Amino acid sequence: MSDTEAPTATTTLYVSPIADPLMGGKLNARAMKLVKKAATTKCLRRGVPEVLKAIRKGQKGMILLAADVYPVDVIAHVPAYCEKNGIPYAYVPSRQALGTACQTKRAASVVLVIQPKDDSTYTKTYEQVLLLKNK
């Protein structure tokens, strides 16, 4: 390293011990693209209370949870609730990135992407993410 180069600090995100299945790489990029498209069509529920309320009312879709939520108790009950209701879920590495994809300034710990209608703009992306997640 020369005198002109600045040392680069790499920060690693905290990953919760319960974060399984964790999306990474290409699958994470597709999931963020899906969230952005769903946010533009207002087919998104954000936050633990709003997501659980939507599930209770029978809305179907896919849940994305942030893996870097601390304390874990905030979202620890959501995966069990999803399995009980037959809703697919996965973890994404960053809650800040999840909040940005939702087109909000705040971080988001849980997001429900509502299952698209046949003519929706994000139907193809939704099916791709579900297919890749199930592999």
What's the quick description here?
This is H/ACA ribonucleoprotein complex subunit 2. Helices cover 38% and strands 13% of the residues. By secondary structure, the chain is an alpha+beta fold.
Helices and strands in order, then pairings?
Elements: H1 26-40, E1 44-46, H2 48-56, E2 61-66, H3 78-85, E3 89-92, H4 95-101, E4 110-114, H5 123-134
Parallel strand pairs: 2-3
Antiparallel strand pairs: 1-4, 2-4
InterPro entries: eL8/uL1-like, H/ACA_rnp_Nhp2-like, Ribosomal_eL30-like_sf, Ribosomal_eL8-like_CS, Ribosomal_eL8/eL30/eS12/Gad45, Ribosomal_eL8/Nhp2
Domain Ribosomal protein eL8/eL30/eS12/Gadd45: 31-118
Subcellular location: Nucleus, Nucleolus
Query: How many individual β-strands?
Result: 4
Q: From the alpha carbons, calculate the radius of gyration and give it in angstroms.
A: 16 Å
Uncertain runs are none
Average pLDDT confidence is 90
CATH architecture: 2-Layer Sandwich
What is the SS-derived class? alpha+beta
- What topology, given as strand order, has the largest sheet? 1-4-2-3
